[in-house]
Each structure stands twice: as C-alpha cells, then as structure tokens.
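Quick start: what a row looks like.
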Amino acid sequence: MRQCTFRNNTASTDGGGLQMNLSTGSVIDCVIEQNSANSRGGGLHLVQGTPTLARVTVTGNVSSNLMGGLSWFSVGSPQALLALDDCVVTNNTALVSLGGVGITDSGGAVASMTIAGSTICSNAPRPNIGGGRWSNLGDNSICDCTADLTLDGIVDGVDLAALLSQWGSSGGGAYPADIDGSGVVDGGDLGIVLGGWGPCPQ
C-alpha cells in the first residue's frame, strides 16, 4: 500500500485505522490519523507475519484500552518480525497503557520488531514504546526514560536492583533490563541506568 490515508475510522475491537494479519506486505508513505479502537491499536493492529512500515505517520489515534498508536502482536510465531523505517508515531492516546507503540510478544530473548530512523514521542501514557522487545537500528528519537525499568517516573535504587537481579541474563521478566538490546544485561545497561539517575524528563 502506497500513499494512502486512513482517517476517522472506528473499530469495535482492534485496529481502528488498519489491521493486518499474517502480512508480508508493506505500508509506504501513508498517514494513519484520528482513528479509534475499543481494544488494541487505535491506529493500527498488526498480527504476526513480516510486515514493513516505511515513512508512515501515525498520529492523533485513540484506544479506549491499550496501545493508542500501533499494536504489534507476534505471539505464536517465532519468525514474526515488524520493521519500522523512517516512521513517526506521535500524539496518540490510550486510556489504559502504552499510548504510542505496544508490543505483545512471547517474552523471549529475540526482538520481534526493528526500528530505524523513526520518531516515537508525545504519546500518552508513557512509555512511548513498550510491552516487549525491540531492536534499535539507529537514528531514532524515542522520547522515553529508558533507564526507568519500573516505569515510576524516576531512575533510582529500585531500577538498579531490577537490573542487578538480571545481571548476565537476557533481561526478561516484568522489568526487562537489557536496555541497550545487546542480548545480555551487562555494563552497558548499568551505564544507562547510572547516566539517567534521577527524575525522568517530562
């Protein structure tokens, strides 16, 4: 799909603007705005497959539950992989959690989403992206306090304890501590926590 606009649509469940299941296709140079859903993904809900979003803007969408902008569901398919390239996900809202991008994966060590050259900011509630593992391919602007593992708005001893409890592992569990996406909780992640110490920027 190229040069499309999905606007002012409503879903009674998932994917207010667009839903794709088991897709291997691409959405390129499109705008997904001002849509709403009663469950996941006010803008988009993508399920398994290997879809690609390139130069897609997701803005002003609302979920009355989870994941206001984009919902990615890869559970049950180890090969599932979503690629976000040069996308913008801003000003989306979820009434419960994850205003921007939400990932629902199997909790393994392998990321089910890659993000490159994208901006994911100004979504509410924070974090702007969360719920599962993703790989940072560079040149991204993610407006989150990544060192705040417990999502309480401050980087402190509780986050440090969560990190140390996962030292040397792949960083799974309730507070995944592999912040830098290297595959192991180590000194790189510790440096991020110490560097972000204190209240998270608003």
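That is the whole record. DSSP finds two helices and 22 strands in the chain. The CA atoms of residues 170 and 184 lie 4 Å apart.
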